[in-house]
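Let us work through a complete example step by step.
Step 1: write down the sequence.
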Amino acid sequence: MRTGLTTREAARAATPGRVVGVDVSARMLERARHLAAAERLDNVRFGLGDAQVHRFGHAGFDVAISRFGTMFFSYPLAAFANIAAVLRPQARLVALVWQRREHNEWMRLIDDALGEAARPPQPGADAFSLGDAEATVSILAGAGFDGIGF
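Step 2: predict the structure and record it as tokens.
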């Protein structure tokens, strides 16, 4: 299982800095802690929380990273504003997300195979929700980010 892989990779790259990983799943966090310990990463910690409301404190982070997580925020504007609030000036947000649904051939094939059983995803739970660059720029700008690029 690759749980916490992005956080562990960041911990290796950030030495001697510190890295914080946050997730809503206690089980996933426990596995990530175990893997980090096995890899002897002592500059990383993991915390249970939802980025939309998690109290990160005043840590002044230099970078926030997400790999296939941000598109599942129920309230993306609130979540990104919460993240922006704990980033230092000139800090960066780096997020890897799926492109728009219609640009993912594998998804079109699944939808075609399911036919009428294929249902559009529920709002807030759509893996492709941040694939629309214009809409995502609007969300990020509203949350306080600038210099947004894809």
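Step 3: interpret the result. Residues 55-145 form one domain.
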